[in-house]
Amino acid sequence: MIDPANLDITGTAEALAAGDFTAEDLLRAYLARIERYEAGMNCFITLLEEPALEQARASDARRAKGERLSPLDGIPIALKDNIDLAGVPTTNGMARFRTPVRDAAITQRLRDAGAVFLGKVNMHEGALGATTNNPHHGAAQNPWRPGFTPGGSSGGSAVAVAAGFCAGALGTDTMGSVRLPASYCGLVGLKATQGLISTRGVVPLSYGLDHVGPICRSSRDLSLMLAILVGHDPESTESIHPHRALRTKGVTLQGLRFSVPLNLAAVACGPGIRENFEAHLAALERQGAVQVDLRFPTQDCTGTRRAGLLISEAEAGHALEAELLAHPDDFSDEFRQNLEYGRSAPAHRLVAAQRQLLTVGQRARKLFDEVDLLLLPTAPQAAFSHSDKAPVNQADFTQWANHSGCPALSLPCGLSPDGMPLGLQLLGQHRADRRLLAMAELIEPLLPELPMPAL
Amino acid sequence: MIDPANLDITGTAEALAAGDFTAEDLLRAYLARIERYEAGMNCFITLLEEPALEQARASDARRAKGERLSPLDGIPIALKDNIDLAGVPTTNGMARFRTPVRDAAITQRLRDAGAVFLGKVNMHEGALGATTNNPHHGAAQNPWRPGFTPGGSSGGSAVAVAAGFCAGALGTDTMGSVRLPASYCGLVGLKATQGLISTRGVVPLSYGLDHVGPICRSSRDLSLMLAILVGHDPESTESIHPHRALRTKGVTLQGLRFSVPLNLAAVACGPGIRENFEAHLAALERQGAVQVDLRFPTQDCTGTRRAGLLISEAEAGHALEAELLAHPDDFSDEFRQNLEYGRSAPAHRLVAAQRQLLTVGQRARKLFDEVDLLLLPTAPQAAFSHSDKAPVNQADFTQWANHSGCPALSLPCGLSPDGMPLGLQLLGQHRADRRLLAMAELIEPLLPELPMPAL
């Protein structure tokens, strides 16, 4: 039997369709890996072995009758533990939070597509941070190196895919929390246009900045997942109609206009980050792409990051108010103090932060009047040791897609001098998600292919 | 010569086109009325007699060459004093504020249409209130009765039109500040779909709730003004593309589905308000319109009004921060204290207010899945004496259009038992402004015609 740990979702769907293995075989292969490696990964908060086996068997029964619900039918997916799955606890990375009676909008979409729910995975507490060194559920480990962070806040989602526990997972991204762990773990991760994928049934961090997104092994998988996840949700205040997000015009690298919207020389980057990035720019130019000199409206990554943090702390402080008052011990001291800080900040500071990000985001969207694509490293550093202090600037390159609402994704693009994966971030025009994915599929073959990490 | 004080904008444009009078004649007729009645009205903060005469003569010169810029060419318009006109002080109803070097986006649109800028008019201080009893510029007087409020915050805009100083004025509407003075003064007033008319160059009260809108004598004038004022403004963070707002399908009263979305029996209404309103509902039903039983998501007008106030105080407190710090004496104690209250409120209260209005507004928009039109009295009372305390619930019926972003307008619909004008409020589907105006033009002839007030 083919080892499913090496396959992407698309390849797995083809193997299932060809009868190379059944959905139950597939799940059992993943469960065997989980059995063997989970203790070293600390990936799962809730593993759903029995319900997943039932779902896999039901999928096999459908397939036997020629009734496949979607390419995802029978394929195990891991959910970040801030996404509601009916009847299963949602911890939000806290000691406890709630057990929902209803699926999140996106969970329902996955269910309707026949996905198998493998489990709920570890995350940075409350999604407010990017190490997934979780005080209640332990530190998730980077499959590329024990003791190293997988990034966050969707760290467990990236671990699940990178460790070969499944081929796809969902995370959430408020300042970069899907793209950062994808980058740190050698995977692809997508944050679609704001509002395109419903966040209903996902614990809020920031109402306006939150996004749900997939972490997978290939950009073709991102397209497959996006097609399943997108859809107007009339119950969600943030949901938009898809419109042109799903249209693609012919995209070629020849003549493609791109820009690097920050002066990277002025940002503290880890070893090899800039060199790796510049090599990829040169490769793109060799394919006929044209670099245009355009910059984000400000180089002040710190100011915009702090504005995003204040908004997140105030809004999560509002969203989690009942739990803060009733069960303060379910929060770590640090997380509780951050929320209390945001809750009690004077309102004019929150207004200033909201206006700042609205203005910066709007001006960033305007750059696409002149270019097709913005490129940045996904993060200013590769994954670091859990024993090191987290760099403050982890989200300095990813935050812009949240402020602007533009789609952005991370592609694995090589290794740091220290042997840890790096990510190349592509930002596309607002509501032109399909075009961004088409560009990603053209750029992906230019980048070095990473092996599976040796566990 | 025809007395221009009796004409609406459309009629004035026709008379100008027919050569019944020139733009200079027209302006001089208005200036004569202003000379005679302004002392009793307290309408103008800045009267622009000389520049207006120049603009009127330039319009006449264009007309002589057959080069009319728009139907508005040569017609005097009054601007609320929170709307920037280049080179003229904008007081925002404060002691002083700024002298802009640049027109507001809408001022530029009026200028491009050939409008004559008659002056900047009185308003409630900072637009935060609805009496236009201004501590710095005096109490504007209702042309229908000396000593009575014209409403607010765009009180001067309504006085200018009702007193026959001009045929049209611009106001701003954050919770009802265009529709309330229109109602109190026997005029029509429109708040278009949120974002359809740019607010760039207008002093902010609340970034998300602010709207600019015209006050005129007829609903056909609202259509004329809307066509001139609408347009995407790439410099404005709040601006939207017109899309379907400007499309009209055939609208008839026969079969039109409407609803009264609040239980008026549970609201403290002034004498005659409910009886007048119900008579108009009956008249609509006689025309074949069908009343449907649908309600706003909450009857809690007080809760939503307070949320809107907190947002306005916090956001205006942010927008006016530099002036608050540098020139506190330019603010009345009450206005300054209100802004300080909003500025210093804990951020979680602001988040709660923002979420409340977002949810209420979204659910209110959903009502248009089932009806074409929502109807309410514009205000729970007619104009009252400046010596009476302002009722707290003035904006309880108007605020919903701001929370939802839906277009709404007020039509004069008779007199209170005490002889003061009343208004009928029509709310239409989000971005279906033209359809709302088409309904207004069908309903207007069913309502009693009011005379000009005797000054």
Commentary on this structure:
Two copies of one chain form a homodimer. Helix content of chain A is 36%, strand content 13%. By secondary structure, chain A is of the alpha/beta class. Chain A folds into two domains: 1-298 and 359-455, Amidase signature (AS) domain (Amidase signature (AS) enzymes); 302-357, no CATH class. In chain A, the strands form two sheets. In chain A, strands 1-3-2-6-8-7-12-13-11-9-10 form an eleven-stranded mixed β-sheet, sandwiched between helices. In chain A, strands 4-5 form a two-stranded antiparallel ribbon. In chain A, strand 4 (133-134) and strand 5 form a beta hairpin. In chain A, helix 2 runs antiparallel to helix 3. Chain A is globular, with a radius of gyration of 20 Å. The mean pLDDT of chain A is 96. At the A-B interface, helix 9, helix 11 and helix 12 of A face helix 9, helix 11 and helix 12 of B.
CATH domain topology of the largest domain in chain A? Amidase signature (AS) enzymes
Strands in their spatial order, largest beta sheet of chain A: 1-3-2-6-8-7-12-13-11-9-10
Q: Secondary-structure element order of chain A, as H and E? A: HHEHEHEEEHEHEEHEHEHHHHEHEEH
The oligomeric state of the chains shown is homodimer
Shape descriptor of chain A: globular
How much of the polypeptide of chain A forms β-strand, as a percent range?
A: 5-15%
How large is the count of helical segments of chain A? 14
The count of domains of chain A is 2
Termini separation of chain A? 21 Å
Number of strands of chain A: 13
CATH architecture designation of the largest domain in chain A: Alpha-Beta Complex
Q: Low-confidence parts of chain A, pLDDT < 50 over ≥5 residues?
A: none
- For the record, the CATH class of the largest domain in chain A is Alpha Beta
Give the integer mean of the pLDDT values of chain A. 96
By CATH's scheme, which homologous superfamily of the largest domain in chain A applies? Amidase signature (AS) domain
